[in-house]
Design goal:
Length: 103
């Protein structure tokens, strides 16, 4: 749900918007987080070919991406931490959607 849809729904229902329930738009994130998602999307996925498990992103060439996208050297560590958090959430989401083994 977008912010606009949420506010429209509240208006139709006659409810006041609740701050904690207002959806976050991509533009609401700090520039560094937006940039981290941009870098993340350009990294190659690493999948286990035998059983289809997601193993995370390949970080080969990350320095080149940082250079091309003008990520300041002093932000590289923060960017890597953000990428790790994003990948951790994605890994968990993918794992949660996998069917559970029933033996």
């Amino acid at each position: 749900m977008t912010k606009d849809a949420y506010f429209e729904m509240c208006e139709v229902l006659g409810n006041e918007p609740i701050e904690e329930e207002i959806p976050v738009d991509f533009e609401d994130f700090p520039t560094e987080v937006q940039q981290a998602f941009s870098v993340y999307g350009k990294l190659k996925d690493n999948w286990d070919g035998m059983n289809g498990h997601y193993l995370g992103k390949h970080f080969e060439g990350i320095r080149d991406l940082f250079y091309i996208l003008d990520v300041p050297v002093e932000d590289h560590k923060t960017m890597l931490e953000l990428l790790d958090m994003i990948d951790g959430q994605r890994s968990q989401s993918i794992a949660d959607r996998r069917p559970k083994d029933t033996k």
